[in-house]
Design brief:
eleven-stranded antiparallel sheet, alpha+beta, 11 strands, about 270 residues, 6 helices
């Protein structure tokens, strides 16, 4: 199967999936684990993150920090949500080991300790500005072509050749919340299926991983850089179980199989808050 075919299959699965009906006091729990790459880029002179000033291509060291936690969604998604965060966990270090360990130690301190259950708003995405994910579910047009244009206009100009990539990354972020109207989720998958550069891996335990590659052009130097985003989909439900994002694939000292960010998700219904 091609990437678009798998995404259209995911759209059908999402449209046909009946979300759990929550009884009073129950919550939909989205358990997550996230791993984030930090970098020391000599050109920047201080620790940073890919895409936020630091570059994988020129970094002299890199490190990974992971954290787990959970979001608790109420039956009425506009009611009070809750979250919990676990303690940060040190991962791999790449390139200059001493420099990388120092950056990782500083990052662990910045993350802070575990945070027990606390009330929160509906989730926000880094690229969503002042709007939470529910605003997008309520505002997006359901026609796939119109949805792509709407998101492109909302996000505004960006790096050359990243027009489709930024649309895809926002849709992946919204779909990975694993909540929302089934028909809207199906429309998001149909919009994703229209974007170029998608490939798909073999099916594993009923799941498929779709990869989106964008070759970004930097006009000032005429060079091109590969950015790769992936999403793993449960093809029976249309739920997202994993996402990754990797900039400057194959460039620099950081192994190409270490993404900028990696997230996994597991959904369940709980009878009460912990």
């Amino acid at each position: 199967m091609t990437g678009p075919e798998v995404l259209l299959g995911a759209a059908n699965a999402a449209a046909g999936f009946t979300p759990p009906v929550l009884a009073p006091g129950q919550y939909l729990r989205r358990a997550w684990t996230t791993s984030t790459l930090g970098l020391f880029d000599p050109e920047l002179g201080v620790p940073g993150m890919p895409g936020y000033g630091a570059s994988r291509a020129t970094a002299s060291s890199g490190w990974v920090i992971s954290r787990s936690g959970a979001d608790y969604a109420p039956a009425d998604l506009r009611s009070q949500w809750c979250q919990e965060w676990g303690s940060p966990v040190a991962g791999g270090v790449y390139g200059d080991q001493a420099q990388g360990r120092a950056g990782q130690d500083a990052g662990m301190q910045a993350y802070g300790p575990a945070v027990t259950l606390f009330p929160s708003d509906a989730p926000y995405l880094p690229e969503s500005g002042a709007e939470d994910v529910l605003w997008f579910f309520e505002s997006l047009p359901r026609d796939p072509a119109a949805m792509v244009v709407w998101i492109d206009d909302y996000l505004g100009p960006d790096t050359q050749d990243w027009a489709e990539g930024k649309v895809g990354w926002l849709l992946i972020g919204l779909l990975s919340q694993n909540v929302g109207d089934p028909e809207m989720r199906a429309a998001m998958y149909r919009a994703l299926s229209t974007l170029p550069g998608s490939t798909v891996g073999v099916e594993h335990d009923g799941r498929r991983t779709v990869t989106f590659d964008s070759h970004l052009a930097f006009s000032e130097v005429g060079e091109r850089s590969l950015r790769r985003s992936t999403m793993t989909i449960d093809m029976a439900t249309g739920l997202v179980t994993e996402t990754t994002d990797t900039s400057e694939v194959g460039e620099g000292t950081i192994p190409s199989d270490v993404p900028d960010s990696w997230m996994t998700f597991e959904m369940s219904v709980v009878d009460s808050l912990p």
